[in-house]
Design goal:
mainly alpha; homotetramer
């Protein structure tokens, strides 16, 4: 392990979060890096009965012989719509940062890149939330933490600059959400852009394992499925008329 | 392809079902073998909003960039509870057949093996159905078809013998279901035991693709998920209290 | 089933390929439609020890309790690089067809759309093959078959027009390959664009099941993995130094 | 979160490992519990080019649009053969512990249960290692750590008792390995038996994410696959003769 002795130094010597950073980068994180990574993993792990949790619990109910299959089914729902915006926001901030490296001011760079997104009819990832109109409390907490840890840098500044410019650039305000905060604080401590999607995936894996423990103790997989099927007015106007539903 | 020319002979020369048999066994099926395999694939393909279909549609809603992920999520629910009984019944019939090969009569062999299952508190796979108390119409149709095709053999006889003996052996009647009929008619035409689970998996893949076409045209993945979540009295008594449910 | 009686009419009455079409479209295919769909499924099913087959066999070796998990692992590799070009080519042909519906000639429409792909630095899907420089024999066979079946239409004409124009448009010839032929002949018989990716996925599922039967009879999953690991000069210059390799 | 405020107390207040424990059990871990859980996650995370890592990297190469699919493909290989022994050993220790709760001495209980495993021709999970004949250093380290943390209890004692009795019970010595040590130290701190498999799954997810970061930076997915295919004398004697290997 890159000059470290797994048995002698790492087992018992470092936390799982530190080990994750070491696996990704080849070096141990500083306390600041570890603290920020821990905070983002904690912020995004928890999820209620979201689609991927339901898919996972239904899969365990149908195939209890393979816990790994139920975890995999849940992870497969960590896609572009549900959890991809953290990575997409990271790419946005990185594009803007690249322009500032070329000498542009942050405001000018942000205006240009956001303008290109608008021209291509792309959404601005990392902003807006169905519930938290004003501001996402998890996002605020992550930035506060980064500030306390002294790790706030260019990407956080970009994230806030974009938020401030949005009313002018797109005609309405959109608050930074947790999917915008995560890449901003992680990129500022040197977390690799190409592994950003790994943060929600790892965090959700922990949550899925907890849900699957509960599914074994208090099964609801088939109940969920029955309720969903009942609620749908699945009336045969669909192309293929999937009406018979008894499963062998 | 085992002496066959893919381009010259197979493409346009054989059906997909014949090709599946060729891939499995190395030889083309007889018309009788093809007919029985087609019938079992048709009998088991269709499914309504079962758990694995729901898991698949929710996964596509969350991760539309990867149709293959949604298909995989649906296949992961083809496990021991939902679709494994066809394979399990095939093993039961094969165990009984092995005893008759050793000279035992079918009744004696069936009684002995079913007795062992009972002693080990195992269910008798391939029998009983929540809806079809008398007899599963799909099972009857498959046996009728095998009879017309002239392919009925030892495994079908074993399947029916077990059904006849069950009231005496376990104290109540249980009708042969489609998961018992499928292995019986397939083993009688030489389909390999170790590929039995492939029949429901392949059939359900076709059905999942149709559901995912519909999901693109008439999305219900998130609707299903919302209805399921609403229906569950998810009240915090669970070990981990997964109450917050907004998803980034 | 859309006015059809599963037990009375479909089981034993239609082939699996016809059932797949019925599930997708709600109506039974014509003999021509069935013939073309069968041909494409046969053309694309067969694959040797490709990455997804290896992934599937290694997964079964590691997790033999769940055949469905090994099939899912293999399907997850049916992505944009390996099998996605059939769908991408279908979208290309559909874009060109939409322009001709607006009154443009096929050549003009093809030139314009291919020009847009070039301007956006996108590859032209469905053309070129590492082995078959002149022309892909599977592609030729599919077009010949469509011609014999009388189903050749606008999409095949577009596919060939693009092939003819490519030397002029991109400066070098690229032959139509099987991933270009599949969508051309399928779209010409009314197969739905949004289900195009389902054809390679269903076909490969059949092949994966055959490989997994073989894996149970003649295991090579761990042998493949060992050979691959040996061949890689995995020398520790990688970021995280994954050198220890004994697996618990 | 069970009386905890996610934003105010948890984000920035606890580590990811502590959050995982909270999700599983509903309460925060003690420092001793956290320390043992961290140590087991670190001990099992790291893996070289094992089958599941290869399956994951090949999947990303073929389907780069979906990182979640490549992670899922890797997790699907966390099955009974490769990583299931930690859970299986946990069940063995729990069975023995249940007998001691009924009044039996540890030696008597261990002898009885191991004898039952032998009679059923089951392997004894958690013992023996292809490389570490004497004793697995990771296992020794975990027990040492538990001892330092003051958490050694009944399950560790059972694990060592079984190791001591094995020469007599099965005729040869087998050293406790890391898959035996993990459940012993975790069960001793109150980690739930039914979530034991989650420890290797979560740990390997972290490692897979690191491998997939590397795959993006230094691709070897197709190289691995090519080397594996070359190394196999795949000579057509197989049932289905998968010789053509060009992939569309």
């Amino acid at each position: 392990m890159r000059g470290h002795d797994l048995v002698g130094q790492l087992i018992g010597g470092i936390s799982f979060t530190e080990h994750f950073w070491l696996l990704l980068t080849g070096v141990l994180p500083s306390p600041m890096q570890r603290r920020v990574l821990d905070a983002t993993l904690v912020a995004i792990a928890e999820h209620g009965l979201t689609p991927s949790v339901q898919a996972s619990r239904m899969t365990l109910a149908a195939a209890p012989e393979a816990l790994q299959g139920a975890v995999a089914a849940g992870i497969l729902g960590c896609g572009s719509v549900v959890l991809g915006s953290a990575e997409a926001a990271g790419r946005l901030f990185t594009e803007i940062a690249a322009q500032t490296a070329g000498g542009a001011g942050i405001e000018a760079a942000a205006s240009r890149i956001v303008g290109e997104y608008r021209a291509a009819k792309r959404t601005i990832p990392g902003y807006g939330h169905p519930l938290h109109k004003q501001s996402d409390p998890r996002a605020r907490r992550l930035f506060q933490l980064a500030s306390e840890a002294g790790s706030t840098g260019l990407h956080a500044e970009i994230a806030h600059t974009v938020e401030r410019l949005l009313p002018e650039l797109i005609g309405r305000p959109l608050a930074l959400n947790v999917s915008g905060a995560i890449p901003a604080v992680l990129l500022d401590v040197g977390y690799p852009l190409l592994a950003l999607k790994g943060v929600p995936i790892l965090a959700r894996t922990a949550s899925l394992i907890a849900h699957l423990l509960e599914e074994q103790q208090r099964p609801i997989g088939f109940v969920l499925s029955h309720a969903a099927a009942q609620a749908i007015d699945y009336d045969g106007e669909a192309p293929a008329g999937f009406k018979a539903s008894d499963d062998a």
